[in-house]
Amino acid sequence: MTQAIAYPSKVRSFQKTVALNSAANDPMTADGVRISMPLYIDLPNTLRKDLLNGVREVIAGNFTTSETQTQSGLTVSTPSSLESEVEAFLGLSIDNLRNVLFSRGGMPADLLFKLQAVTGIEFVSEKDLTAAYKERQAFVKKWKKDHTFPTN
After folding, report:
1. What is the pTM assigned to this prediction?
2. CA 35, 114, 136, 31: dihedral to nearest 10 degrees?
3. Which of 7, 77, 94, 149 is the most buried (most CB within 10 A)?
4. d(Cα 144, Cα 112) in Å, to the nearest integer?
5. CA 103/CA 60 separation, integer angstroms
6. How far apart are CA 14 and CA 96, in angstroms?
């Protein structure tokens, strides 16, 4: 006889949030031109490790056990942690978080901001974002000025 695979008693439903890099968030000019400004943040591996360990600490630090008495008099202990709540908030499982954190290139800014909220570790502040936007704006203006078509 073959054992049937048990269906999980609790299925996680991830919180739906509007992604920062969504086209719906891009500004439009009066002529209907959409200016896409995706935001990715590339952290060094040491900081990525700090975020992963911070998430693990939040989950492990909030480990609780609830006990219930059955009708037959047995006491049943049920362990629980914040893992499902953290996964729902981040929009991905802890198993997948490691892959996303250590993939090449930058990560979506919304994921970083959610990780900062869960762990309490802040690597990118509003001041950092403002400075980065101003620097990018100056770069784009200079690039546009330096790349004009020569006329006679």
Report:
1. 0.74
2. 10
3. 94
4. 31
5. 24
6. 13
Interval 28-68: pLDDT, tens: 889 989 888 888 899 999 999 999 999 999 988 877 777 78
What is the structure's pLDDT at 67? Answer: 79
* CA-to-CA separations, 96 to 15, 54, 112, 138, in angstroms, rounded: 16, 16, 14, 37
35 Cβ contact partners less than 8 Å away, ≥ 6 residues apart = 26, 27, 28, 29
Residue spans per domain, the chain: 23-145
Q: What is the pLDDT of residues 131-150, one digit of tens each?
A: 999 999 999 999 999 988 88
